[in-house]
Structure formats: C-alpha cells, structure tokens
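User: My collaborator sent over this chain with a note saying "see what the structure looks like." That's all I know about it. Can you take a look?
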Amino acid sequence: MTIWPAHGSWWPEFAGREAISHNGRVDTLTKTLAVAPMIDWTDRHCRALHRRIAPRVRLYTEMIVADAILYGKRDRLLCFDAAEHPVALQLGGCDPAKLAAAARIGVDYGYDEINLNCGCPSDRVREGAFGACLMVRPQVVAEAVAAMIAAVPASVPVTVKCRLGIDDRDDREFLEDFITQVANAGCGTFVVHARQAILGGLSPKENRDIPPLRPAEVWQLKRSFPHLQIILNGGLKSVAQVLEHLPQVDGVMLGREAYHRPYVLAELEQALWNAPPPPSEEEMAAWLAEYTAGHVAAGGRVHDVARHALGLFAGKPGARAWRRYLSEHSNRHDVTPRVFAHAAQVARQLVAG
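Assistant: Without extra context I'll predict from the sequence alone. Here is the result:
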C-alpha cells in the first residue's frame, strides 16, 4: 500500500519518473492517471481487468452509499484483490457520522483513499440529498470531510469528486466558495468533472453529454488553488487530449473511454512514463479465463467478468467477432471460462479470412 504524506495530498508510486510532453520535451511530472468511479461498471472484476493492462493507473470503486456499507453485505460490496492497489473507495451520502463510519470500514478493508461523491446527478442520489446536490451544501460537505479525516489514519487521504456547479449555480464564485470551504476542512484533492450538473430536466445520461465541457475552468481552478491537487475529469479519450491538459492540472481521470477501450490506459502509461508494453489481447483472453475460473469456483458467474471485457479488442481486427461471441455466449447457463479462448479464436479466424 502506498503511504501518503498527508490528508488530501497523494502521489502515485511512479511520481517523479520521466514523462514525455506533447511537444517532445522530457519533463519530470508528478501527475495522476485514474479511472473514474462508474456505477454498475467499475466493480472488482472491471478493476482487475484494468489493473492487468495498466499497472500504474489509480482505480476507483463504484459509488457505494454509506448506509449500504453500514447495514448491508460488506464483503460483497468491499472485498477486492490485493493486485488492484492503489484503489480508492468512493462513498455516497450526506450524514457526516455515517460517512465517517463507512470510511473507517473502508480503511479496514484496505482501501488507499476515501472519496466523497459530490457530482452524481442521478435521481436516486437527488432523492437522498447527496451526490451533486451536495454542491449547494458546502458546509455539510466540509463537516463530512472533517469527520472522515478524523475517522481514518493520516496515511489515507480523504478526497472529493465534484462538478463545476449545479443547475444555475455554475459561476466561478460558487465553485471557488465550495472548494474553499471543503479545503478548509482538510481536503487537499479535488477531482472535477468539467461540466455542470443539471438536475432539473436532464437525465443522468444526458448530464454526461449535453452540458458543455469547460476544461479551461478546471485549469483556472488549479491557478486559483495552487496548493491543492486538482484532477480533471470529463470527455477525455486520447493520449493527445491528456497531454494537452496535464501541464495545467495535477492529473486526469478517464471514464467511459477507459471502460470501452481499456488499452487506452496502457497507451497513456507508455506515453507518460515509458511503461513496458501491456499483455496482448490474446494474453489477456487467457488471463481472463484463468481469473474467471477462480471466480466461478467461488460461486460467481462467467458473465460477471465477461460483461467488462467486451471492449478488449476495441479498435483492433476481430473486435466485432470477439464482442459478438462473448455477448451471445457468456450468459448461457452452461458457459465455462473457456469462452474467452473461444472468443479470441473466433476473432483470429475472422481476421485470417
């Protein structure tokens, strides 16, 4: 487990290595690369896949509501493989005492960071008065952050993920007031989705696309708060885009692109830190079969893993055949982990003609 210098100030284990900038210059960057927490997507099987491809990237759980941790099946929600480190637990909720208790449990399970969701625009979190709704309640967020910090060891940072604003409250003054109050409570790292959340009239899906991206405002946030770690999230899809933004912020977080095209993470690690090549798609198919066999032996289903692997060959010859074969076979009652080898064989045969 990585040991962090102070609450809210965290650096990847590869900090300080040489990184190649977009203009060909070699700089020494202490930057963060992360995969966003995504509900129903970034479970432990998804994270295991991402970690196998990209050993340096920081991973996050799905948002888990504090009440579910306090009163639900903790092992099912929180257990993960040690290979996933560094991995952060993202919490949802608005009760400081419950969030503090959930954070403490998360640390007991071995998570390297506790992150509070202040950006999710879904109906469920709106009804529970948390997620993006918390941006109009900065004092509540500050109290929650302070309570979580008091509940966990100093080596585990408590961080916040938010948006530029909410509904018609998306001006710089509003955002900077939110950041100031929460930072004063001890939070040193903010992951900022470069869109406002529009809760009146847009669905959660529409909130991922319709509000325009405004990354320059995240750049400005870093200039206004140079002592804080500011991570940019939202719409990032390529190495070129990441290299454009990294000089302005402390790191980037990819979401759907990393899920649908996981090898983009390896491309980024190679571009930023001269990382060695990742396992090939065929090697990953063999690993998935072995990994899934262990999951099935423990009572799981092949589909639990296969649903996260549809994008493995994305952008490569045979991608459609791989995706179709897994989609058609992975949810059958008689399917075995060999489905990954079969899917890879079908993809290769199609390419060979």
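A starting point for your reply to your collaborator: The beta strands are 18-20, 26-28, 32-35, 59-65, 87-92, 113-118, 158-166, 189-197, 229-233, 251-254.
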